[in-house]
Amino acid sequence: MTDRERFLTMLYNGPLLKSDAVVCLCGEDAVPRLHTTAEIMASKGALNVVLTGGVHDPPARIGAEALVPRLMGLGVSHDKIHVDATTLNTRDQAVNTVALALEKEWRRLLLVASAYHLPRAFLTFVCALHEAGASERIHIVPVPVSHMPWTGTPDGVAMTREQLAAVERDKIDKYAEHVAGYEDGRDYLAHWETAAYLPEEEVE
To answer: pTM above 0.70?
Structure first.
């Protein structure tokens, strides 16, 4: 298997663990991501929600602030919602969310993204963790919005999710400065796969 294949196998097949917060990447395909986020909160899978994304150009992209009423309508209390409407790209979302997690002393985050976007989003978050010296302090759990059809298109977008997956793969190379490598992403997942099952005092 290639490094990419090993990474993707682990990325899409890990356990869904309880967390301090669920991070919903707003923008493209935002509504399905929001519903997955609400489902996690309803099942008590997380204590807080981070809505991150400042680009608001509906129907293709819906920003974080516009999604707050929708999320509340899905049963999430306003005091549980943290909004970052300053971010303009995945790199910004990762850097700001890692900073917030460190400020709040959150140890585990569920990262909700469309399945086609999740590989680049996750690797961008891993890179941000490395830069903040927090790779062994914060556990990012990838959560793909996987029930959406690959042959379907997000609202307001011309390409199918399958086609967008190819675009995302190219962006991993294009934005390599701010994206961890496949082997690095796999190693991060492997580390936390082991640590998640250790007593907390052994993880420190």
So the answer is: yes
